[in-house]
Amino acid sequence: MSDERDPVSAAIAALRARQTGQAGDHGEPGVRLASDEGARAQRMAEALLFAASEALDVETLAARLPAGADVRALLGALQDRYAGAGVNLVEVGGRWRFQTAPDLAHLLADIREEPKKLSQAGLETLSIIAYHQPVTRAEIEEIRGVAVSKGTVDLLFELGWIRLRGRRRSPGRPVTYGTTDAFLDYFGLAALSDLPGLGDLKAAGLLSSRLPPDFDVPQPGRLLPGEDPLEDGEDASDFHLDFLSEDEPRE
Fold this sequence. Notes:
Layout: H1 7-25, H2 29-51, H3 58-64, H4 71-81, E1 87-92, E2 95-100, H5 120-132, H6 137-144, H7 150-159, E3 162-168, E4 175-179, H8 181-186, H9 198-203, E5 227-229, H10 236-239
Antiparallel strand pairs: 1-2, 3-4, 3-5
């Protein structure tokens, strides 16, 4: 019988020797225990920093980690560990936080458009323009009973809901206002004729049930013979800038 071991026995013996060597590398049980506690404390610090909504100082971390934990050593180890990662551990003003690696910051650029709330004056002005277009500034103010703020008109222009249609054939050649396709799109209207009528407004509670007998809702978008389109080269954005003089009251 040959003294040489079969391949399976040799492989088993090699695995046992490797396991014995690895166990010996860890040293005494007390050393292994200290190493395990250090790894656990590092994981805890990592979790705290990831979950925090703001940067944490050393004192805050120490209060939540096991007693005796070397917080600065843990932070240093985590900083080295994440040095080449997509997020880095950095110290800012004595506090620590994870943040995107500088070379990857462009991936998280976020462009937001803050919604602007339309005031009551804005809603009234927009409604008058929608139902009475083409309408001049003087006509808007006559219907509302108060002066129209330049800021209100500026916002409606900025939203892209109104435009300058043309000039009225009357003294002073005032410009007229109308709505845009963006206005129709935002409010889900196929055409101006889809704007709510008198019955719809009453049903929605937007009009009093005690209205004058001759009250009616105008048909928007009617073409008036006394209006000329803006001439070529006239910039619509220039007209509403002087909509209200400095000494006129604001809403």
